[in-house]
Amino acid sequence: MKWISERDALIAQTLAFVQSVTGRKDDTLQPENPAVGSTAAVEIVAVEAVAREFEPPPAPLPSRPAPVPLPRANGDFRTEMQARIANFRKHQERFEREREEYYAATLTKLRAAIRDPGGPPPKK
Question: Which of 20, 37, 70, 80 is found 20 to 30 A from 96 (Cα to Cα)?
Fold first, then answer.
């Protein structure tokens, strides 16, 4: 199959390029089972970086990372957690209340529909 030999040639060319750029061999990137009967010519081309006049040089990276904020005092953390828990409980209670109201309204509509089977079907 021609595509297998082309694939193997591309892999070999890529590995050769990586090795020429890094200056070392990387055995983990070698193909596991190269095609036995295929012969592929690999051409290694030297790549030169050309600086253009209109491109500014890349900005230097900061030498150290941004400072990490200090942990808060224990009491402040505790009050914040208590406030978050209280807010969460209020939120859950609201959901439960709305769910109960919806259930009661739906049950009322269903009972009314059962009592009056000749009436129009309930609207959604």
Answer: 80
Rounded-to-integer distance, Cα 5 and Cα 34, Å: 9
Cβ atoms within 10 Å of 19's Cβ, excluding its own:
14
Q: pLDDT tens digit string along 27-66?
A: 555 555 555 555 555 566 555 555 555 566 667 766 676 6
Both structure tokens of 44: 């290694």
pTM: 0.34
d(CA 98, CA 90): 12
d(C-alpha 112, C-alpha 119), whole Å: 9
| Structure token pair of residue 96 | 């439960």
Residues 6+ apart with CB under 8 A from 26: 15, 18, 19
